[in-house]
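The material for today's practical consists of a large collection of protein records. There is nothing in a record beyond a sequence line and a structure line. As an example, a complete record with its sequence and its structure tokens follows:
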Amino acid sequence: MKKTLFMSAAALVLAASATVAPLAVSAAEENGPAVGTTTAEFTVNAGDGTNPDTNPGGDNGTGLNANLWLVKAPDLNFGTTNVAAIIKGTTLNYQNGDVKAKTNDPAENADGLLQVSDNRGIGAGWTLSASLSDLTTTSVDKTKLTDTTYRDQVSKSGDLLSGALKLQLTKPVSPNADLGQTAALSTDNQNVTIWTAGANQGQGDSTATVTNDTALTIDANAAVKAAQYDATITWTLSSTVTPN
């Protein structure tokens, strides 16, 4: 009997050990850490931290587009030709250099540079388009060309020539937009898309340079004068997507 009692006591000790071990683990888990939450935060403002009226330069939009800039737009110098060539019709290639009939626009430059800067931060894309006016001598009042009688008069006198411009650009550099390299404009004042950046594209600086493959084709005109002719290129940069 004593032997039996001894074994029962040993079994009781083992049972107690099995019970105590899980209780010790459970007590350690209950003594956990204190947990709290806070915030790390910063704010992004539109622009580059400077006055939008002075930087980065060129022309900017209004309202939400105050930080959408046409920074650079090129003058296009096509050198010289002669009366005989215009009588037959001819094509002239772009040359670096100043033009005489400057517009004095802030974005105007003689280096063949085209640059758009979008620092709006609103997720809206943009479109850059251009239109080309008639080629006229300095004696023509461009503001009166909408008058059919006046337009017919200067056309017959040789003071107005028609033609087409093939714009060729180096491969544009843009942070996250695939921009075009070519465009064709006619002397009809119709807007033609040059570059398009979709929603959430085109932020930062997008740049390209006019190449010597840019060409001006002048239609044949037997009334041409020995004079300086020029056309106005109007560049329009506008938002194309509703802001997020």
